[in-house]
Amino acid sequence: MNDQNLIPPKPGEIRNPKGKPKGTKNRATILKKWIKVRVKIKDKSNPLLKEITGTVEDEIMLALIHKARSGDVQAIKEINDTLYGKISDKNELTEKQVIEYINVSKQFPEKD
Predict the structure, then answer these.
(1) Which of 57, 73, 77, 76 is nearest to 65 (CA)?
(2) Is the pLDDT assigned to residue 112 strictly greater than 60?
(3) Mean pLDDT value across residues 10-29
């Protein structure tokens, strides 16, 4: 181990001159900025609706819903996890989760 690493840097001393420059924004900050940008959205799931205005986040959610409606299991799981929370233990459900599942299932009866 290098003993210099144990000594705190002196004021103004630069130990990693090629490191990340001060003021550089991280990916999460940049993503939060761009996901809130207003855009015109063409919704594939509703052909009567030509174009709507929303955020990039809205556009992503509509794309996820479209994938789920076409049968994409991963998209369905992502929507369920977002709306109802992830199941912590796949072998055991709480009474509240069972009741919630039954109530949701009643909204979408199986087709004959």
Answers:
(1) 76
(2) no
(3) 86
- pTM metric for this prediction: 0.56
What are the tokens at 28? Answer: 């999460």
Report which of 85, 83, 84, 81 is spatially closest to residue 73, judged by C-alpha positions.
Answer: 81
Tokens of 110: 């199986």
Residue with tokens 């409606």: 69
At 49-75, the pLDDT tens digits run: 778 889 999 999 989 998 999 999 999
Give the CA distances from residue 57 to residues 41, 69, 76, in Å, rounded to whole numbers and listed in that order.
11, 18, 18
Which two three-digit tokens encode residue 20? 């990340």
* Residue 9 CA: distances (Å) to CA of 12, 16, 18, 21, 24: 8, 11, 16, 17, 21
Measure the CA–CA gap between 74 and 94, rounded to whole angstroms: 23
| Domain range list for the chain | 28-105
Q: How far apart are CA 81 and CA 55, in angstroms?
A: 22
Give the residue from 84, 78, 52, 51 showing the smallest Cα distance to 65.
78
